[in-house]
Design a protein that fits this description.
This protein is α+β, with helices and mostly antiparallel strands. It has 13 helices and 17 strands. Helix 1 packs antiparallel against helix 4 and helix 7 packs antiparallel against helix 8. The longest helix has 16 residues. The radius of gyration is 23 Å and the shape is globular. The mean pLDDT is 90.
Length: 406
């Protein structure tokens, strides 16, 4: 779980420092910076995969070791905040807690040049510093990137020369260097796994209505690819199916009796709902029903991600069912397995939030003069706490009060 993140000079995020929770909502107009924050999360995911800086920003073709990695929107040419004092300096500072019972805290900073695709600074700490590049200098013309590794003794080891285009965290996670201790390599492996273990969900009815190419899967695709194959996997687990169907029953005006898949000519699965004794295949279901069914299914995947991002979570869902959507997000976040990041344009979604959830609901606004995105939690919006006691939060958002206040 990412507990706090500070970003400098990435896209429209000139200076950003957010404390995150299990459920995080991002609100604001189009082009206010919400998607840029989600792009920042993808940079961290690419670091978790061990990619080079250029691969993270500009994309990577499929290989024997990895799937296709789509480029960050705009690529390396648009990665740096326009007008930054140091055009080569993008930094990510992350405070996290490892998944699992131990929940060890860690802190990581990486600075890089998007233009040159090279590291500028990097360090990792988990209770105490593990490695640090700052004392090593690292001039632009140096053929390697040097770090000092602390091997558990009171003195620093000599500088290590590493690939300057690939974050050190990935080197440490791969091990194979006699300078790394086994314990530190294992820690890095867990951190990179948590960073890489993100899933973006933006289901499209075009994919949800079709047959799946796979028979059964552990996770569906970003756009809902192999949705029916995921439903087949969920239905194979009686407990998961029961919980999944219970949410769908709340969505539909008619009683949902069952959920499952139909088979095509060669056994390929197709999603279906059963109501009133009749089977309704995916092609006859509404966009809203399919999208809600897919988003809900994402929370019952056999292989759950550590971080799940959902853009415009209310898309295609009727206003009368948005309360259920908020309740589901809240319920699955409390389960503690997955950290949720979602954007919304809906005042109704905000209307169903609890007061304690305002701290991880973030308002985004873009400065028209400088192009900088300002993102802050609702309690930090000037006069918000006093004003929301007099007027519903949904009205404050719909009427533009938040934009005027920030």
């Amino acid at each position: 779980m990412i507990e706090r993140i500070a970003i400098q000079n990435f896209k429209s995020l000139k200076t950003l420092d957010l404390k995150l929770g299990r459920l995080n909502l991002f609100i604001g107009t189009n082009a206010s910076g919400k998607s840029n924050f989600f792009d920042a999360l993808r940079v961290l995911q690419g670091i978790g995969y061990g990619f080079t800086i250029h691969e993270i920003l500009d994309g990577k073709p499929k290989s024997a070791a990895s799937e296709v990695w789509e480029p960050i929107r705009g690529g390396s040419a648009k990665a740096t905040f326009t007008g930054a004092a140091d055009a080569d300096d993008i930094s990510f500072h992350v405070w996290g807690r490892l998944a699992g019972d131990a929940g060890q805290e860690w802190e990581y900073l990486v600075c890089f040049s998007a233009r040159d695709g090279r590291l500028r600074q990097e360090w990792l700490s988990a209770g105490r510093i593990i490695y640090d590049s700052e004392p090593a200098g690292n001039a632009a013309e140096d053929p390697a990137f040097h770090v000092r590794f602390h091997g558990g003794r009171k003195i620093w080891q000599p500088h290590l020369g590493l690939e300057k285009s690939r974050p050190v965290l990935g080197h440490l996670a791969r091990g194979g260097n006699g300078k790394w201790s086994k314990g530190h390599a294992e820690l890095a492996q867990r951190i990179t796994h948590d960073l890489a273990n993100m899933q973006r969900i933006d289901p499209s009815p075009i994919f949800l209505r079709g047959y799946s190419q796979a028979q059964t899967i552990q996770r569906m695709g970003e756009r809902g690819e192999n949705f029916a194959a995921l439903i087949r996997a969920i239905c194979a687990d009686e407990k998961a199916k029961k919980a999944y169907v219970s949410w769908l029953k709340e969505l539909r005006p008619a009683e949902v009796e069952d959920v499952g898949t139909l088979q095509g000519a060669v056994g390929e699965p197709l999603f279906m709902l059963k109501e009133g004794g009749q089977e309704f295949p995916a092609p006859v279901l509404s966009d809203g029903t399919l999208r809600f069914a897919a988003i809900t299914a994402a929370f019952f995947q056999p292989d759950m991600p550590g971080i799940l991002t959902i853009e415009e979570v209310e898309n295609g869902i009727h206003a009368s069912r948005l309360r259920l959507l908020v309740e589901m997000l809240r319920n699955r976040a409390k389960a503690g397995q997955t950290q949720i990041m979602a954007t919304t344009h809906s005042p109704i979604v905000l209307a169903w939030l609890k007061k304690e959830e305002y701290a991880t609901t973030f308002f985004c606004k873009r400065d028209e003069t400088t192009g900088e995105s300002h993102i802050c939690s609702l309690p930090k919006v000037p006069h918000f706490e006093d004003t929301v006691q007099k007027q519903p939060i949904s009205d404050l958002f719909a009427e533009g009060w938040l934009e005027d206040a920030l």
